[in-house]
Amino acid sequence: MRFTEFNLHDNLLEAISYMNFENATEIQEKVIPLIINGKDIIACAQTGTGKTAAFVLPILHKLAGKNEDKTSTLIIVPTRELAIQIEQQIQGFSYFVSVNSIAIYGGGDGSEWLDQKNALTQGTNIIVATPGKLISHLNMGYVNFQNIEHLILDEADRMLDMGFFEDIQNIISYIPKKRQTLMFSATMPPKIRTLAKNILVNPIEISIALSKPAEGVLQAAYLTYDNQKIPLIFSLIADKSEYNSILIFSSTKRKVFEISRTLQGKGFTVEGISSDLEQSERENVLSRFRSRQTRVLVATDVLSRGIDIKDINLVINFDVPDDAEDYVHRIGRTARAETTGVALTFINEKDMQKFQRIEKLIEAEVYKPKLPIEIGEGPRWQVTEERKKRFSNKRFTNKRKS
């Protein structure tokens, strides 16, 4: 379905054309008409399906031509990176539409706080905010959300994983009960359904490719000992000039530093990103990676969801994610929007059971090639019969504590 078939505002269609968007994704095709018609929605869609545009475009369509100085739309997200990314998309789509927006998140200096306060008090049309920082502003008493018409929760499952359930309920208490509410989540654990029941009215539920990797992702997994992992990275990418955008996920900040330092010593353009960096530094690192100044980005899970970096050729899981769902989100950084990409996972002898959970979740056995000869022999794939029986009788889902 083409975007012109949605009967969107002419100025919005001009911006869409300018950004080279032509055909809607499945989630966009299903959600956009419903949002325009004022329906509450709970949508389950994996990373890379285009869900940000699915809610941004119909909201901008509703706001186009109004020229009102009031805050009518609040978008709540789990991380500052996602807030920035969504606000950037809003700026792009609203280029020819008189709509203003701001991202509100922590980690900045005093001047950023003042800018956020001014936006909240003077009536910025669209606010994109992380729960913690927004609560800080609400507690100061100067925020007026009485004109909110649209409330959007993006990556709702991640927000609950991070312990924001009470903060979300607190924020909602400041918003009119008569509103349109949209909830987007990659998974649907019981807490999400409880939250949806409390804040949505007769919602329409939509599910798109729940917990399955994008079709364009070529997956493989290497059985390695820990001391083989960094040499394996070098072996895999040393002569692969076509991989000009590589994203490596590790489980700890210490490993981010170790991997980055070692690859830099081999002559690669590498940067690491974690919560240890100031927000401005993180934004600069992402900017250099997007513009291909940096070939390899090493990251902790802060980037596994919600960051829109196009055309990543290769994703490497240096460690097997603790949560099977996170595997889908990590490898979802490549093969976005019907492109193709490669996702590799390194499995040590302790992580074999975790990886079997992943294979059960995605309902597929991931190809496990032999290590290159120069790396040596790795551990053998072993899963005990007892574990096999347990896995066959148990559904593995997201079990993080909020």
Write a structural description:
The structure is a single chain. It contains 15 helices and 13 strands. It is of the alpha/beta class. The protein folds into two domains: 3-208, Rossmann fold; 217-392, 3-Layer(aba) Sandwich (Rossmann fold). The longest helix is centred in the first third of the chain and has 14 residues, at 80-93.
Topology:
Blueprint: H1 10-18, H2 26-36, E1 41-45, H3 51-63, E2 73-76, H4 80-93, E3 101-104, H5 110-122, E4 126-129, H6 131-140, E5 150-153, H7 156-161, H8 165-172, E6 180-185, H9 190-199, E7 204-208, E8 217-223, H10 229-237, E9 246-249, H11 253-265, E10 270-273, H12 279-290, E11 296-299, E12 314-317, H13 324-331, E13 341-347, H14 352-362, H15 385-392
Parallel strand pairs: 1-6, 1-7, 2-4, 2-5, 3-4, 5-6, 8-13, 9-11, 9-12, 10-11, 12-13
Question: What descriptive keywords fit this protein?
Answer:
6-stranded parallel sheet; 7-stranded parallel sheet; disordered C terminus; 402 residues; single chain; alpha/beta; Rossmann fold; 2 domains
Distance between the termini: 39 Å
String of helices and strands? HHEHEHEHEHEHHEHEEHEHEHEEHEHH
Overall mean pLDDT score?
86
The total strand number stands at 13
**Low-pLDDT ranges:** 390-402
How much of the residues is beta strand, in percent?
Answer: 15-25%
What is the alpha-carbon Rg in Å? 22 Å
Assign a percent range to the helix content: 25-40%
Highest CATH level, the class of the largest domain: Alpha Beta
Count helical runs.
15
Per the CATH scheme, the topology name of the largest domain is Rossmann fold
Domain tally: 2
Which sequence of strands runs across the widest sheet? Answer: 3-4-2-5-6-1-7
* CATH-level-2 architecture of the largest domain: 3-Layer(aba) Sandwich
Q: Helix/strand/pairing class, anyone?
A: alpha/beta
Major sheet attributes: 7 strands, parallel
In one word, what is the shape? Answer: globular
